[in-house]
Amino acid sequence: MIFGVDYYPEKWDRSEWESQAKLIKDGGFNTVRMGEFAWSLFEKQEGSFNFAFLDEAIDILACEDINVIFGTPTACAYHSAKRGCKNNRGALWSGDCEA
Question: What span, in angstroms and rounded, lies between the C-alpha atoms of 99 and 82?
Fold first, then answer.
């Protein structure tokens, strides 16, 4: 059975990743979902992608026998901000917007 939790390593100091993986395992979780809010880290320059930090996080989680579900980063404000999309309150909109 999959018993999972969200995990966003990009929000934590790298020195904490091993202890967090152990806490996730000790909490009885065997799966994490990650990646969907990190697009600005994957593509710091348009068209140039770097997933190295996630590779390292996945390796650390694997040492604790924790599976990873990679969330496609479509739910982040990065693309909307890049396109200048706003919701009706003027805040950046993280969903679809009209061009």
Answer: 12
pTM of the model: 0.70
CA angle 3, 65, 49 (to 5 degrees): 90
Q: How far is CA 8 from CA 21, 86, 97, in A?
A: 11, 25, 26
CA-CA-CA-CA torsion sign (48, 32, 15, 37): positive
CB 9 within 8 A of CB 38: no
Which residues, listed in sequence order, are joined to residue 32 by a DSSP beta bridge?
5, 68
Greater model confidence, 95 or 4: 4
Beta bridge partners of 86: 92
Handedness of CA 11, 46, 80, 51 (dihedral sign): negative
